[in-house]
Amino acid sequence: MQTVFSIGVDALAYGMVLFVISIGLSVTMGLMRVVNLAHGAFAMIGGYIASYAARDLGLAYAFAVLIAVVGTILIAIPIERLLYRRIYGQPELTQVLMTIGITFCIIGIANYIFGPTLKTIPTPETLRQSVSLGFRTVSAHRLFVIACGLAVALGLWYFIERTAFGVKLRAAVDNAAMAAALGVKTQVVYAVSFAVAVGLAAFGGVVGAELLPIEPYYALRYMVTFLVVVSVGGAGSIPGALAACLLLGAIDTAGRYLMPEFGEFFFYLAVIAIVWIFPRGLAGRAK
Amino acid sequence: DTIKVGVVGPFSGPFALQGKNFKAGIDAYMALNGSTVGDDTIEIIYRDIPTADPAQSKALSQELVVKEGVQYLAGFYFTPDAMAATPLLEQANVPMVVMNAATSAIVTKSPFVVRTSFTTWQTSTPIAKVAFDGGTKKVISVVSDYGPGVDAEAAFKAGFEKAGGAVVEAIRMPLQTNDFSPIMQRIKDSGAEGVFAFLPSGPTTLGFVKAFNENGLKDAGIKFFAPGDLTQESDLPALGEAALGLQTTFHYAVSHDSAENKKFVEAAAKAIGNPAELSFPAVGAYDGMHVIYKMIEATGGEQDAAKAVDAVKGLSWESPRGPVTIDPESRHITQNIYLREVAKAEDGTYYNKEIQTFEKQGDPGLAAAK
Amino acid sequence: MSAIFDVRNLRKMFGGLAVTNDVSLSMAPGDRVALIGPNGAGKTTFVNLVTGNILPNSGTVTLGGEDVTRLGPTQRVRRGLVRSFQVTRLFSEMTPEEHVSLAILQREGRSGKMFASHRAMPGVMDEAHALLAKLGIAQLAGHRVSEIAYGQQRLLELALALALKPKVLLLDEPAAGVPQSDTARIEQAIADLPADLAVLMIEHDMDLVFRFAKRVIVLAAGEIIFDGSPDAVTKDARVRQAYLGSYADARSVA
Amino acid sequence: MPAASLEIAGLSAGYGQTRVLEDISFCAGAGRKLAVLGRNGMGKSTLFATLAGQTKRYGGEIRLGGQPIEGIDSASRALKGLGYVPQSRDVFPTLTVEENLFVGLKARPRSAIEEAYAMFPRLKERRKNLGSQLSGGEQQMLTTARTILGQPSVLLLDEPLEGLAPVICEELMAAFGTLAASGEMTILLVEQRIQSALDFADAVIILERGRIAWTGTPAALAADQHTVETLLGVGGLH
Amino acid sequence: MTRDAIGVLVIAAFALVGYFLFPNNLALLTRITAIALLVLSLDLVTGYCGVATLGHAALFGAGAYGAGIAAAHFGITDPIAMLAVGIVSGAIAGLISGVVVLRAHGLPQLVLSIAIIHLAHEAANKASGWTGGSDGLAGIMPDAVFGLWQFDLWGRTAYVFGIVLLIVAFVILRQIVRSPFGMLCRGIRQDPVRVRAMGASVHGTLIKMYAISGAVAGAGGALNAISTQVVGLDSLSFTLSAEALVMLVLGGTGSLYGALIGTITFMWFEDVVSAANPFHWLTIVGALLIAVVLFAPKGLYGSVAAYFERRGRKGR
Ligand SMILES: Nc1ncnc2c1ncn2[C@@H]1O[C@H](COP(=O)(O)OP(=O)(O)OP(=O)(O)O)[C@@H](O)[C@H]1O
Ligand SMILES: Nc1ncnc2c1ncn2[C@@H]1O[C@H](COP(=O)(O)OP(=O)(O)OP(=O)(O)O)[C@@H](O)[C@H]1O
Ligand SMILES: [Mg+2]
Ligand SMILES: [Mg+2]
């Protein structure tokens, strides 16, 4: 029984890390309809900035996170203006080509500037402790990530479903020309949403770095993971993404515990089963 | 004349760091020993294989031989890449100097293969003795599920059971494992007193070691044993505090205290740019170049693979890692294996501190396969 | 004559809303029926139900004596139940010629051929061009559909349905978006259909409805509220109030 | 916003490399009702799309209430008071009816949505449905209502009656008439049913292959049998 | 028709030029040929049927392992027989992945394909007795072609073998895509609902195309196994799948010509820049991809073809 609880805690924590890192992708893919394979690259940029700020400049963790998010957005703005703007509304495959190209470039540049080694982001003492749950200990950092995940989920859901901006964003995505004809400044809407998505990517990259460490190849190494959780959840749906992350996190964790040698099998068979049952994803938005 | 050496390795992609070390080792050797042998100038031609890809390796090796006209093939970080190129050697009359790939069987694939790195069996066997002698009798083995991992598991098991210990459970986990918490739970549940681990060097080692500590295994007194891939120097800055005290066995530590090594580290650090990136493939490449230079000397620059390989059989020299010999029969390197412990230096950096030496170790893997 | 197309007690709920509420309808070969009714009455849903594009909650659909309720849409088409779409559904990158040839080949069971070319099949090409000419879009045969005006796309939509040589044809607003100058073409094409074909047309253009229909069925809020002759329908108070409005006056005066 | 005038001079436009409109000039005074007629594919929709800023303009001027607007983007034109109801019912399929209407509000308070419901009670019943789940006619109502909610000073209606039940058509035309008469909007209308258009409008232009082929009053058109036959391809009006 | 004749002539001419201009690079050229078959097969399902997949290497790998295992474990070393085994294995793999992948659409479909390639990869890793696991399957020694032409160090035989295979496959595929069946597939890509309303079976048609695609990819895999005499796990990898997709989009989807041009461009470019700078070539490849999207959004072939189409229409 204790083991079950223990695995449950691990599953929850892992699922939440996945959620925090990939939710930004759900925004770009589901709402902006851009298959943004460079999502991981932005997460990685966030990680590098945070690492530089916290480790090399010795800034406080919270401050490093903030700088990472803002810095990544600043880096992303010209990329959005020059490159992404050209692929909004283009066929998915064109977007794949462009965003893979962007990923390659960012990897190359990161490798050149920071070298191929792992970069850590020193966490404050409070997050480094182990917290006892009675039946086991977990690191405080994991609990912190769970809290972040919940906060992000709630905030983002409110932003998209309840604010005027969210409605305009969804309208612009459905039919940009029509939204413009109704007075929606689609370019501004897109730019802001992109900034939000990139900011989330950076945030996820930083707080998730304990599990997915920052190195130049990060951008490609975890691309599939991000793509899978977002699509299984149903791109664009916050509850869907949350459900998918928790579910897949649980499957992955349980699989790795029960039969580690078949962990990969277990995980991908489960993915096939889920998509088989929910061909649009757990909470796919109707098209 | 110009003699060309083709070096195949991962110079981009997730293992770019290891490829970079190849180059650093080669550059260091040429910086210290000049780029000529007799009247011949040595030219290195690099070819990139980001991840294990035997077909690509074979195509590139073939291209190096027929198009670039290389007289020596070298490098090869991954076993399948080395294996794939061996059928070419005889027809092409080209020796291959393996600078990393660590599966025992490679040298048996062709009489023209010489290896200057190590084998997983070679580095994983001594740690079994260390574990048993340290009083650990029950161990769980946890390895990544691919060739080297399976080798490490077998090597440790053989050594540990021979010593009298018991491997209570052997887990193979997928290479793409991000979260090791469930594995740690398994280790806890197994009731073992120690864990033997093998993971490819790189980001996953960090996750593994952290999970080991955070899930309370370290505090619970479970011992941690691994070959030195896990604490390669270039990962240490990231591992940091978490790795402190980990004991591993390996053939080379950057901190190895010898004049040869000082010279090497200085030159290699200069070549690689950032000294913190220096790691074991560099020494494999450095010694590989030594072997190639000796081969060129022996053949006088003529292309004669058989003669070249014969010339280095039984060759002994003082490598940065210590005294080494090319075993005349297997053409694999006989060397010292060191037990090391991760320690903190005065300047706050972490390093592998050698604490015990197992002298003149051959490759037990070949014997085991027989 | 016996019914070729028979729908019994069809029912469909969307959430709590009964969009099709116990609808029964039967057509004999040669019937020309107009299905009219207020917006959102459930006309398109009815077509979707009988063609198998959505599943009913209950009820049966019989085609030529065979119960097809459990069959998928393609099976029903192959048995002669063909529809057109209210909003054009065409292959935007293909030409009208390709559209119609494909439909003809499909009808003849030759669309799976891999080592042949439709251009090399004179029968198919001739038929396709004749059909396009009849609807007045022969000059566009080689253009991409994405480049031709909406009204012309509507005509192609109809051509596709005709190419399948159906036994029962369901037309969902075939004239919507077609300018007055071209509705005549549509009428003519429908008038030229084989006499034993049963046609059901949904349309909001009352002039067209009254020229076409021998029988009018009115659907409101998912239920049939009227089934009878065109003359009778203009006199029905409920229909006038729910749907026709002053059109009924104009017509009864004329 | 009170009604504004719309003046167009020498406008040519098209799609990519294809030119569809050539040298179009006309003027619709504030509060006027103008019908744009023409056969299939003659460029009526292209004209409206061009006014709304959604095609490629090669030359010419567009003035809304005296201000040139040809240089600004679609959204800015809408914010300056240009309302556009396109021919293809462009509802936002993943938004609910209410959210669709919300987008049309521009800066108006949310409560104004009730105006749309008053106009089309059917929409109120379906307020929680997604756009994609509406019937054809309901989508048409939604598209029209959404634009009107933004209180444009010039309203471009591209076949707004398509797919609507006769009673609704009547009510809608009456409502448009009221909007124009009260001086709230200038209305430009494309309509296939020529009679409805003539009953409604106080001026008519006919497009033929992207050029203006005829201008005049509805009465003049009704009397000019020759024009009706050649330019509109209809055998006569009744 | 004539366009295809020209196409074949151009391929043959390219092949000849390659043979004489780069006699020392035939291994690379043969590899390009094998990958070209993979990309062609991907074009069948992606370009013509609109099925997004990141798992197409599963079909290629099935062909490679099929041919390799036949040779290494069953002594089937005649290259033609190995090719046949590869084609059949590929077709079967195509059938299976078709059934799975076609269950969903859009992103979930992409995910299904990713799951398939990972499962295939993992299965090959586990079945190391048959496949050699991560060390690769070695010991493939194909006989001489028709007992006459031995596979040599320079790779001449392999090259000619590959080119002949490519031309035959290309001619057959061009015919298939022009046929009524091909037209139906294009229809499905644009609007499956419409196709159903015409009485055609969407699922059945797509599965058929998937199997054909598998046969072509399997031929590519077999060629790879025959010419390099090893099969590694990389031939069943996500990376290869993704690269194939990139090559296809680079060249332009839905014409088969684009697939060829994309493959040649990408692999040749990659070879040149990675030889020129083995350390930082990824950045340059990335820049190439971005440039293509910016300046030739329909892919290299697609954009050129569109340009000439426009020119042609103006001329009329
Ligand atoms: N998937 C769905 N979910 C919920 N409601 C739906 C769905 N599809 C249709 N409806 C509702 O069912 C009703 C009937 O729609 P239908 O399309 O059949 O109307 P119609 O009679 O064809 O109208 P029109 O003349 O306007 O085309 C409409 O009110 C519509 O909103
Ligand atoms: N997206 C497009 N690309 C290229 N040409 C187009 C496009 N849309 C329309 N056209 C062409 O422009 C011309 C005018 O089309 P438009 O839609 O403006 O006609 P219309 O008068 O509104 O016709 P309808 O009465 O059918 O709605 C047509 O010849 C059409 O083929
Ligand atoms: Mg309808
Ligand atoms: Mg129009």
From TrEMBL, chain A:
It is found in: Cell membrane. It comes from the Bacteria. The chain crosses the membrane at residues 6-27, 60-84, 96-114, 140-160, 188-212, 224-250, 262-279. InterPro entries: ABC_transp_permease (IPR001851), BCAA_transport_permease (IPR052157). It is a multi-pass membrane protein. Its main location: membrane. The keyword DNA damage does not apply. Keywords: Amino-acid transport, Cell membrane, Membrane, Transmembrane, Transmembrane helix, Transport. Belongs to the binding-protein-dependent transport system permease family. LivHM subfamily. PANTHER family: ABC TRANSPORTER ATP-BINDING PROTEIN, BRANCHED-CHAIN AMINO ACID TRANSPORT SYSTEM PERMEASE PROTEIN LIVH. This is Branched-chain amino acid ABC transporter permease.
UniProtKB/TrEMBL annotation, chain C:
It comes from the Bacteria. Keywords: ATP-binding, Nucleotide-binding, Transport. Signal peptide: none annotated. InterPro entries: AAA+_ATPase, ABC_AA/LPS_Transport, ABC_transporter-like_ATP-bd, ABC_transporter-like_CS, BCA_ABC_TP_C, P-loop_NTPase. GO terms for molecular function: ATP binding. SMART domains: AAA. Residues 5-246 form the ABC transporter domain. Belongs to the ABC transporter superfamily. This is ABC transporter ATP-binding protein. The lineage of its organism: Bacteria, Pseudomonadati, Pseudomonadota, Alphaproteobacteria, Hyphomicrobiales.
From TrEMBL, chain D:
The keyword Cytoplasm does not apply. Keywords: Amino-acid transport, ATP-binding, Nucleotide-binding, Transport. The keyword Transmembrane helix does not apply. Residues 6-234 form the ABC transporter domain. GO terms for molecular function: ATP binding. CDD domains: ABC_TM1139_LivF_branched. Belongs to the ABC transporter superfamily. This is ABC transporter ATP-binding protein.
TrEMBL record, chain E:
It comes from Shinella lacus. This is Branched-chain amino acid ABC transporter permease. CDD domains: TM_PBP1_LivM_like (cd06581). It is found in: Cell membrane. The lineage of its organism: Bacteria, Pseudomonadati, Pseudomonadota, Alphaproteobacteria, Hyphomicrobiales. It is a multi-pass membrane protein. Keywords: Cell membrane, Membrane, Transmembrane, Transmembrane helix. The chain crosses the membrane at residues 6-22, 29-48, 54-74, 81-102, 158-177, 245-269, 281-308. Pfam families: BPD_transp_2 (PF02653).
